[in-house]
Structure to design on (429 residues):
């Protein structure tokens, strides 16, 4: 047995004079309007529940809309917390549409009534993605609220009735991976047209529950199951797409990343700060909405213009010139290193305090199995308890058939860690 110890945490604080950003712009933006939430999910990366101390007002947010338009943004995903708990939610959505930016919404669905769904449609929202974490028992456990699953499914129905495109999204982990096939059927029955799936990373509250996380060898079972659903979905008019932290370069890669079965697409590297940008509710700007706040915020919109942050700060530019030389550990010597460039940055950072070595890789798990080995992730340092925080892990390489400790029960995993943050009730329209 050998151990690969994680390196010390590294931040990105040096400012650049001028960055060559001529080939990049924030085409796709995920905007957290508020950290207020009417759930307190056990896997929430932002630890949502109550608003940040200083969040952008509606007036300030409308100025941000103008800046996004000037920088060529084509689509904005409004999230929270719960985006609809921001006082200016519908006004901001309408302003985006008026500036030819497509507004879409990701939600837990609790407050998405038929009336709110119609109001979103009137404001120009085109698509709504409801977070569904599994079948009813699992979902309600992960959302820390009985009845949450029914609310989510009702939200999908309300969205469809309002003429919006209903979508779903799911984070998979050891709490819910057994629900995969059953959830696929439920989403089909509900009229969902597309489904984004990704892996729960040790970010925020999920970092408090390392035993809920998939181990790298779990991908050997999960990836073929996802591929089978992808193929069946394409036959039935249903599109399942992997999120940025699910892959890479296994035998199902081409199918999983393609929107049509005959295509052979593949992962092309982290797009944070290249064509993707995240905005936190206090105006903090980073290259991807899931990136760790402490290491990747380039500036705040209350102090700087968006263009200045995008063009002159290193935290927004770290992925623009990444090469194999920036990778380490297994990823540094991988045959796909020059194309993959270490996979998803926030996932690697969530495990090891820096990007460039991503243990959630299908090819990597297959390669270890060929050698009779597997990698085990072991938590060593806890998270701090702030939004988008992380702990630290180490990788242990062990025989593939090594015995595994008994897994905690679902109720044990749900109760682990700090008490959920106080949640905000959905306000009536």
């Amino acid at each position: 047995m050998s151990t690969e110890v994680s390196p010390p945490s590294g931040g990105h604080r040096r400012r650049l004079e001028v960055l060559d950003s001529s080939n990049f712009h924030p085409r796709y933006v995920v905007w957290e309007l508020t950290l207020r939430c009417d759930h307190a999910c056990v896997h929430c990366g932002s630890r949502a529940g109550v608003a940040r101390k200083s969040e952008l007002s509606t007036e300030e947010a409308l100025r941000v809309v103008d800046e996004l338009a000037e920088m060529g943004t084509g689509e904005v995903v409004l999230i929270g917390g719960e985006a609809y708990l921001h006082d200016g939610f519908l006004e901001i959505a309408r302003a985006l549409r008026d500036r030819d930016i497509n507004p879409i919404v990701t939600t837990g669905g609790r407050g998405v009534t038929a009336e709110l769904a119609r109001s979103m449609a009137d404001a120009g929202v085109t698509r709504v993605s409801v977070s569904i974490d599994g079948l009813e028992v699992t979902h309600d456990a992960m959302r820390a609220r009985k009845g949450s699953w029914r609310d989510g499914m009702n939200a999908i129905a309300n969205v469809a009735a309002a003429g919006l495109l209903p979508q779903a999204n799911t984070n998979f982990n050891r709490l819910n991976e057994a629900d995969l096939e059953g959830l696929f059927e439920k989403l089909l029955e509900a009229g969902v047209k597309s489904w984004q799936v990704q892996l729960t990373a040790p970010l925020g509250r999920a970092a408090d529950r390392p035993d809920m996380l998939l181990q790298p060898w779990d991908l050997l079972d999960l990836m073929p199951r996802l591929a089978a659903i992808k193929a069946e979905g394409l036959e039935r008019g249903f599109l399942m797409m992997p999120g940025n932290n699910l892959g890479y370069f296994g035998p199902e890669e081409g199918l999983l990343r393609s929107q049509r079965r005959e295509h052979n697409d593949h992962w092309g590297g982290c797009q944070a700060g290249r064509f993707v940008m995240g905005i936190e509710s206090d105006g903090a700007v980073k290259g991807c909405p899931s990136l760790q706040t402490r290491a990747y915020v380039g500036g705040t919109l209350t102090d700087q213009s968006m263009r200045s942050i995008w063009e002159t700060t290193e935290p927004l530019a770290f992925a623009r010139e990444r090469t194999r030389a920036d990778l380490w550990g297994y990823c540094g010597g991988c045959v796909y290193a020059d194309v993959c460039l270490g996979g998803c940055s926030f996932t690697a950072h969530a495990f090891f305090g820096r990007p460039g070595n991503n243990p959630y890789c299908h090819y990597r798990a297959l390669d270890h199995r060929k050698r009779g080995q597997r990698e085990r992730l072991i938590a060593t340092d806890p998270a701090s308890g702030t939004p988008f925080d992380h702990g630290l892990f180490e990788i242990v390489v062990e025989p593939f058939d090594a015995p595994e400790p008994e897994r905690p029960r679902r109720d044990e995993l749900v109760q682990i860690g700090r008490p959920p943050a106080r949640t905000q009730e959905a306000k009536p329209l």
Q: What stands out?
A: Residues 1-21, 417-429 have pLDDT under 50 and may be disordered.
